[in-house]
Amino acid sequence: MSHPIRVFTVFSIGCLCICSAHAQKGTGKEGEVILQKLDKNFKTLDALILGRNVKSSKSNYNAGNSTFVYYNKGNNATGVDSVLSNRTIAQIGELKGETGLLVTGQTYYRPNADLGIEDDEGVVSRYKAKAQVELEWDFLHSALYRQRERIQELVIKEEIDRKQMQKAGKGLYVSRLQQSFRDLYDSLLAGVLTHHCYNLQLLSDAQQYLLRHEDVSSDALLQILNDKADKDRMLAAISPDKYHKSDDLSDPSGVAVMIDTLSLFHTIETTQYDLATFDLRMQLIDNETATTSYWNAAHISPFVRGSYYVRAHEKNSTNVDVGVTFRFPLSAEAARHKKTLKAQKSVLEAERAQMKQQLLETARLTVIDVERLNRLSMGELERLRKLKKYIAMRVNAYNHRVGGYNLLARAKEYNNYLGCWEKLLEYQYRRDCLIASLQNYLSGNSILQYCREIKL
User: Fold this and answer.
1) How many other CB atoms are found less than 10 A from the CB of residue 289?
2) In what helix (H) or strand (E) does residue 433 lie, and over which residues does it extend?
């Protein structure tokens, strides 16, 4: 059997292995197939990395595409506002309906008409039955008394509930946003991993071919198998069938995201959900303090009373009385309650200060991680560009070579380039998720307002 001599040079413990030598032993056909696959894959990767004969847009696999994008609110904030507002309107209507008016009455019948009482004039009043109706107005317990402060209390409670519901919705929103980044990252990573896994498979086939003929040690093969297993696991987690392979990796680029920490931290201090809730709870205490007074437990009720008497031997008669009833507590409950409210506010102030410190410190550490991932992305981009130049130089040398060369080493050069792409995408994804997490600290503003992108 005759065919062109091909040299398979493998550096493994200083050994050189020539595949064509095995062709004479009847194993050359298998080696020839491996060589053909490697050669075809090298041409594909050269076009992928060096941008030759690429039909699709380069931006399809640009790491910059994974840059954080803040989407509009996807929650039911409007529905929550409507429900809470309707509840407050109903409560205010209930409050305004408190007239303080009270009607009491009594009626009774005397079995013995001779029984009676003697009035001041010494005339005996005798009647068989009596009916009495009284209308009183408890002004201090009607809607007119401290109406503005009581409505303000309802409004503050509504806002506290709104903050808590918005906070709960925001956590779910950020999780979904991060998942959308994951989907984008997976689509980009799958395109790179597919090439990487195939190249490792060819390396594994070549190493196994040489190992069967005792041309290399098993250490190199074991390392390749381990690397491929790692990439296969990553690809399996992505569901690669959902995405197609990259057809252009010739333009390594990305963005660094700079965060305006001064403005961001100021906004967190003034609008973050938990801190804003603390402020509202302290407003509630201030409002309650302002409305707490001795008169809250007092009752002053002007009244009008009408009485009708049915008499046995005289004409029936009607009486109308007008007066005021009152009831005053003999204690200092209001003063003691104000002291309690003051102590409660001091506790809230201390808790707010502690939470503010924790939130700002956590946000600061997140920003530090964002900056670190920016630097890692810059470093990986620099390595990608250098590797691209190196591969271009090596391809030129391979195309003008005389004799054989190390095919396995060339395959590993492509693996280095693909591995750098995977790292770059990972750093950009992790950075974007961290930026998305900062949205948890904001109540209404987009985190994007505090970010500035710099193309790398």
Assistant:
1) 16
2) helix 407-437
pLDDT per position as a tens digit, 126-160: 678 889 999 999 888 888 888 889 999 999 999 99
pLDDT tens profile 357-366: 999 999 999 9
87 class by beta-carbon count within 10 Å (0-12 exposed, 13-18 middle, 19+ buried): middle
Using the Cα atoms of residue 329, residue 335, residue 339 and residue 341 in order, give the sign of their dihedral: positive
Can you tell me whether residue 24 is helix, strand or coil? coil
Strand segments, DSSP code E, in 299-432 are 299-310, 317-327
Query: Which conformational region is residue 122 in: left (phi greater than 0), alpha (psi within -120 to 50 degrees), or beta?
Result: left
Of 226, 130, 236, the C-alpha closest to 186 is: 236
Q: What is the chain's length?
A: 456
- Going from the C-alpha of 49 to that of each of 252, 347, 387, 392, the distances in angstroms are 9, 62, 10, 9
Least confident of 52-61, 196-205, 273-282, 381-390: 52-61
**Is residue 215 scored above 70 in pLDDT?**
no
E-strand ranges in 6-152 read 101-109, 117-118, 124-125, 129-137
For 166, residues 6+ apart whose C-beta sits below 8 A from its C-beta are: 77, 80, 273, 443
Average pLDDT for 273-279: 93
Decide which of 208 and 351 is more confident.
351
Amino acid at 391: I
Does residue 149 contact residue 157 with C-beta atoms inside 8 Å? no
What is this structure's pTM?
0.73
Q: Is 429 exposed, middle or buried (0-12, 13-18, 19+ CB in 10 A)?
A: buried
